[in-house]
Amino acid sequence: MEREGFVSLFIGNSISYEELQKYVSGNYTEDGDTIPSQFEKDFGIDHYDDDFREVEFYSESLDDLRILLEGFSYDEKIVPEFIDICGDRLDQKVNSVILLYDFQYIGNIARASQFQFLGTVQYK
How far apart are the first and last CA of the chain? Predict the structure, then answer.
């Protein structure tokens, strides 16, 4: 759900940057109604603001959370917070990161398809 000042982290694997974009991008019907993205369907998310989403695809799989989150908005604040929750190293190597800002994921789906939810932290 939308909640100002919070960011939710999802990690996983994708074939390419284009496939990752396709996974998170919704569409519209001819009538202008929203068609949810596969990401939204997988995690049971009704809606989030695309303007507050950041994604990254890495050419090699990594398990170092610090490296995975480096360069994202508010990284100086969110990296230590997510490390407190998840530790420095993930239990798997991943090549894709999805961050939803001003969004606190409270769904009960921890893992869907090739992605999993790691947690939500405050960034402001």
Answer: 17
Q: Cα dist. 91→37, 48, 66 in Å?
A: 27, 28, 14
**Distance between CA atoms of residues 40 and 25, nearest Å:** 9
Instruction: Decide if 26 contacts 37 (C-beta within 8 A).
Output: yes
SS3 113: coil
**Sequence-ordered strand ranges (E) for 31-88:** 34-35, 53-64
pTM for the predicted model, two decimal places: 0.93
Strand, helix or coil at 96?
A: strand
Model pLDDT for residues 10-60, shown as the tens digit of each residue: 999 999 999 999 999 988 888 888 899 999 999 999 889 999 999 999 999
| 118 CB-near residues (< 8 Å, 6+ apart) | 9, 10, 11, 82, 85, 86
- Count of CB atoms within 10 A of residue 52's CB? 15
